[in-house]
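Reopening this one. Same input as before:
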Amino acid sequence: MPVIDPARTVAELAVERPGRVRIFERLGLEYCCGGRRPLEEACRSAGLDTPTVVAMLEAVESADTDVRDWAAAPLEELVDHVVTVHHAYLRDELPRLSELVTKVARRHGDTDPRLGVVRQTFEQLHDDVFDHIDVEELVVFPAARRAAAGEPLDASLLAAAVEEAEEEHARVGAALALLRESTDGYTPREDACPSWRALLDRLATLEADLHEHVHEENNILFPRALALAA
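Same output, byte for byte:
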C-alpha cells in the first residue's frame, strides 16, 4: 500500500478515497471549501500530528468499499445524487430545524446569549442555501448534464456559474464554522433540555451533510463539468 504524501491537498485525498472523508470529519479537517491546501498544513493549523493523521487515513484504505466513489461514477448520476439526496434533505430539514432553533433561542436565550447568534446565523444560512440550490438546479446542473452528453454550451458561462457557486459554498462554510464555535462544537450544557440537545445533534448532522455535499460539488462535480465543457 503506497504511503500517503502529506504534501497532497486534503481535497485530493478525499476524492481519491471517499472513505477518508470520515476521518477528516472526525478530526475537524476541512476537505470541502477549504480542502485545497496540503494535508500537512491543515494538520498544523488544527494542532494535529501529521504522521498520526496519515496513519489513520491509511488504516481505512481497505475499509471503504461501502462508500460510493463519485469520482468514478457517471456525471449525470452524481448530479442526480446531489439533487435527490443532499438537496432533498436540505429542503426537508431546514424548515423544521428553523422552528427548533427559534423555539430553543426563545426559551433559553436569556441564560445563553450565544443562542441569539445561533438563531441569526442559522436563519441566514437557511435563506442562502435555499436560494443557492434553486440556482444550481436551474443553471449549473443542466449545463453539467449538457456537458456530460457532449452537447455544445458556453464554457465561460458555466465557469462563471461555478465560480459563483463556490463563493456561496464558502459563505456556507463560514456560517457552519460560526455555528460550531457558538455551540462549543455542538456540545450540550449539563442543564440543556431535550429540545436543546436535539437541536445541537441535528445541527451537527446538518454540518456533516453539507460538508459532504459541498465536497462532492467543489472537488468532483464542478471540475469534471468544466473539463467536459472545455
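So the earlier flakiness isn't reproducible anymore. For the record, The mean pLDDT is 91.
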